[in-house]
Every structure is written in structure tokens, then in C-alpha cells.
Specification:
With 267 residues, the chain is α+β, with helices and mostly antiparallel strands. Helix content is 25%, strand content 22%. The protein is elongated, with a radius of gyration of 20 Å. The structure holds a DNA duplex (14 and 14 nucleotides).
Length: 267
DNA sequence: TATAGTGTTATCGG
DNA sequence: ACCGATAACACTAT
């Protein structure tokens, strides 16, 4: 679920409700979510400290801790979300995203947790368990954030590869934050086929693509997630292009299910 | 019961 | 070594 807009929302939850509170307990017992750490390692590193700032690049978050403590890296994977609750277990922030029937206090999918001095908790809830919590994450491997990338860098990442442009847009080492749904929206808005070799795009197409990238991210953050983007509701059989009413086509590009307008995004 | 899925990464072939 | 495609990961929803 989470692409850049959802991760930004999660980062904002931590910033609003998780900073400057003394950590008195840490549940890092899920050794899959906390790989490669062993249980207790993250706990020992954080006990007694506070979180001091929450950062994000692309789909990766990291949180600084006080007293020269470690950096706590959080990745939401396919299904993760951050929720902050009070001592009674009532959710005070983060509970609005992708509820999917989950009730407050349902801890079946809680994979990691911090408990603060007043009993409040910061939780990572992640049914599919493909998310990750780790100390001192290697953030520097990521490409520039898709929200803030500059035209020269954007142009360079496209003209140096014959891979399908969609695959290039989803390469987190080159541009960070674009996932499957955001990519489909961006390519649809720019009227470019997802399968086009990236290095064949002309300068007009590249500038349309960058404008569409910025607009999609802005709209998704404002609307509450990538599922609110225009073409996302039309990624299904029998659906038609919301602009020209031609049939939507489906296929695999860059290893992911891809939908595009059969008329406006023809090769 | 079988399959697809909003992400990442190890592995394989070119 | 680089590049791109694919499978695997864990688990739920349809």
C-alpha cells in the first residue's frame, strides 16, 4: 500500500505525536520485521531516549534519537502503517489510513512497538510483514526523492537506459518514492506508454513526465493516498479511460501489473 | 481452493 | 561489473 504519499503521512504522524517522549519499553521481538537484528538489540539501543526528528526520502523513513543515540529506520513494506495510541489503547493519530476492518486495540498485526513514559505507544502495524525496522539504515543508497527531484537529474535517469520507462520510474536507487500505482497514474497523466524505452522519450515527453510526477505526488498527499488518484480506480477489467473512454489495457511492465489507456498510451 | 497484491532484494542470464 | 528480468519473501483478501 504505501508509496511516497502514505510514507509522508506516516512520517507526519511520528512528528506530530511521537517526538520528545521518553521511551520506557520497546517490543522488537518480531525477528523477521527487525532483521538483521536479534531480539532486544533495538530495545537496548533506544531505552531511556526520546525520538527527536522524523525524516523521509522516497518510501524510507528514519527517526533520530536523543543523546547521540542510533537512527531508527522504518520501512512500511507492502502493508505497513504507523499508529500512535494512548495508555488506554485508543488511537490518537495514524488510525485513518487503510483501516481495512482493523479495530483499535487489535494487535494481531502489530510487528513493532515503542512505549512512552505516560503509557502511550507508537506501533508499526503490518499484516503482510514485508516491512522492516532497523538501526542506522543505509539511506544514502536511495536516489533523490521523487517529490523534489530537479529536471537535470530526472532527465539523466531516463536517457541512460533502454529499460521500460515505468521500470525506470520505480527504480528506488535512481529516484525514490514511486511505486506501482503512482507510476501508472504518472504515465497516464503524461500520455506515455509504460513500455516505452526510457531513452527514446523526447524532451517534451520528459517534461510532461516530470510535471505529472509532481502533480501525482501533490494530489495523492492532499487526497489521503495513492488510491485517490484519478486512474487508480480504473485499473480493472471493464473500466475505461476516465479521459477518452477508450478501453484500459493490462499487462506486466517492470515485473508489476500495469494498466494504461489503449488509445492515448499506445506504443 | 487458487490467485493476486500499493515493496524490496537475492539471484540468474546476458 | 553493470543491467534487466524473475522469483521469493509472509500473509490477507477475493
Amino acid at each position: 500500500m504505501p508509496e511516497l504519499p502514505e510514507v509522508e503521512s506516516a512520517r507526519a504522524v511520528i512528528e506530530r505525536a511521537g517526538l520528545h517522549r521518553t521511551i520506557v519499553d520497546v517490543d522488537d521481538s518480531d525477528s523477521y520485521e527487525c532483521r538483521p537484528h536479534s531480539p532486544g538489540q533495538i530495545r537496548t539501543a533506544l531505552l531511556g531516549r526520546t525520538l527527536t526528528a522524523a525524516h523521509r526520502r522516497g518510501k524510507s523513513m528514519w527517526v533520530d534519537s536523543s543523546d547521540a543515540g542510533p537512527v531508527l529506520g522504518i520501512h512500511l513494506g507492502m502493508s505497513g502503517k504507523i499508529v500512535i495510541g494512548d495508555a488506554e489503547g485508543t488511537e490518537v493519530d495514524g488510525g485513518d489510513y487503510w483501516e481495512r476492518g482493523r479495530q483499535a486495540g487489535d494487535h494481531r498485526f502489530t510487528r513493532f512497538g515503542l512505549t512512552f513514559e505516560d503509557g502511550g505507544r507508537l506501533l508499526l502495524i503490518d499484516p503482510r510483514r514485508l516491512g522492516r525496522v532497523r538501526l542506522d539504515p543505509p539511506v544514502e543508497k536511495l536516489g533523490p526523492d521523487a517529490q523534489f527531484i530537479k529536471p537535470p537529474a530526472f532527465r539523466a535517469l531516463l536517457e541512460t537506459s533502454a529499460a521500460p520507462v515505468k521500470a525506470r520510474l520505480m527504480d528506488q536507487d535512481r529516484i525514490a518514492g514511486i511505486g506501482n500505482l503512482l507510476a501508472d497514474q504518472i504515465l497516464w497523466a503524461a500520455r506515455i506508454s509504460p513500455a516505452r524505452p526510457a531513452d527514446e522519450l523526447d524532451s517534451d515527453e520528459v517534461s510532461r513526465l516530470l510535471r505529472a510526477t509532481r502533480a501525482a505526488i501533490r494530489d495523492a498527499i492532499a487526497g489521503g493516498g495513492v488510491h485517490t488518484l484519478k486512474v487508480v480506480a480504473h485499473r480493472k477489467k471493464v473500466a475505461r479511460c476516465p479521459r477518452c473512454k477508450a478501453e484500459m489495457s493490462q499487462g506486466t511492465v517492470g515485473g508489476r501489473t500495469t494498466w494504461w489507456c489503449s488509445r492515448e498510451q499506445a506504443q
